[in-house]
Amino acid sequence: MSERTRAGWREQLARVAPRDRHELTLLLVGVAVLFLLVVFSRLASEVLEGETLTFDKRLLTALRDPADPSRPIGPAWLLGGALDVTALGSATVLGLVVFAVAGFLVLQGTWRTGTFVLVACSGAWFINAALKQVFQRPRPDVVPHLRDVMTLSFPSGHALVSAVVYLTLGALLMRVATRPITKWFCMGLAMLVTFLVGASRVYLGVHYPTDVLAGWLVGLSWALLCWLVERSLERRAGLKRERAQTG
Question: Catalytic site residue 22?
Answer without folding.
Answer: no
